[in-house]
Design a protein that fits this description.
Blueprint: E1 2-5, E2 10-13, E3 15-19, H1 22-27, E4 39-43, E5 48-50, E6 58-63, E7 69-76, E8 81-83, E9 89-94, H2 97-101, E10 109-112, H3 124-128
Parallel strand pairs: 3-4
Antiparallel strand pairs: 1-2, 1-10, 4-9, 5-8, 6-7, 6-9
Length: 129
């Protein structure tokens, strides 16, 4: 999947994974040594995340049900907790993505299937778009 910032005309992720089940949300990015440029994890539904036991900092983008950004946090280091009660889901992205794309609170995102992947009718994309 990919994430586009419609407001800024920028791309946040080109290889987005979806964590839409309990086990996937609980694991998140734990156990990874890094997150590649263009990569990311979309946690659905989710209002808060922690970076306990992580090996690297990440950018966080909190979005509501209409894919409007409610909050951003840049370069969140390991051993932190972050919450946004008005969010429906969270994008975990490589540190520096928010700054590089000039993404801000209030921007609108498009979460789309990758060009090479067919869209599943039951996927969160079809429900959230």
């Amino acid at each position: 999947m990919q994430v586009l910032n419609s407001t800024r005309g920028t791309t946040l992720a080109t290889s987005l994974e979806v964590a839409d089940s309990g086990p996937k949300r609980n694991k998140g990015l734990l156990g990874r040594m890094s997150l590649e440029p263009g990569g990311g994890l979309w946690i659905v539904p989710c209002e808060s995340v922690h970076t306990f036991f992580m090996q690297f900092p990440i950018d966080l983008v909190y979005i509501d049900r209409n894919n409007r950004i409610r909050k951003v946090r840049e370069s969140v280091p390991p051993w932190r907790l972050s919450v946004c009660l008005s969010a429906h889901s969270i994008l975990e992205l490589p540190a520096g993505t928010i700054r590089r794309t000039q993404t801000q609170r209030g921007d609108t995102l498009q979460i789309l299937p990758s060009a090479h992947a067919p869209q599943d009718a039951d996927s969160p994309v079809s429900q959230a778009s």
